Task: structure prediction
Amino acid sequence: MLRLMISGFAILCVAGSAFAETVRDSEHHFKVTAPSDWKVERNPSDDVQVSMTSPKADQTGGICNVATEAHPKSAGMSQAEVDQSLANEITDDAWAASFKSVIFINHVVIEKSGTQNIHGHKAYYVVVSFNSITPGAPIVPIRLKQYLHAIPGEAFWVTCSSLQSAFEEEAEAFQTVFDSFTILTDRVAVSRTPGIASLTLYARENFGGVSHVVTQSTPDLALAGWRGTAGSISVTGDDVWQVCEGTNYGGACRLVSTSSRQSADVKSARRLQPADVSLAVLMQTGGARSAGLFVTHH
Result:
């Protein structure tokens, strides 16, 4: 799972009248080049390894990012088996579920989806439009394109977004990011982080206020001493947690595997072992986190 932020990126500058930056992340096994004059930020959040912001972002909202996630269940698979697993599970409905799980997104429309063969593996992509409905702010129409790459042991999301009205204006720059993304290995050995897996609910945003630690599946958090909305959530260990608005894992549910600053009404929570998490489920958690970052930026 995504852990503490990693240092040691190598930034390579390409000579010319305008420069582009190539970010090489050996810890997370990828490299990517930002378009000329785009601002590059490493580790902008708990969930994302690198973000790239357009010099025209004030007008277009243009931004791209790369997120990665270890996937123990696929570590023993061949690349062909990984590709087949995703082929069986990734549908427009699965893409839609990924984006609909993000708080403050509505009117999700899957415009286009498909696959491309890239460097010996099959990459999945989607073009989606939705409204960002952050409380206290105007409704913002967003258009987003996301690629999912998966190799044995790890998955990668490359995502670019802008205002719907400016997507074509930024399309060439977005394509630079998509074309430059390269996975640096064909297999990742996955080791588990030592320690007890836990989910911590906080009453306030940014991990503040009263907190409650959950270490096992709990069908009714009120009986365990938690009542109310979680302003933020933190996760320790490698497991994925399902948090639900109803008791007994009912109502609207979403998956969390890393710390989240998004608020949520949580009445039950259960832990999923990494070996039980399919690539399709991983797609939903990782893709949603990448989309959620755009909602906070626009």
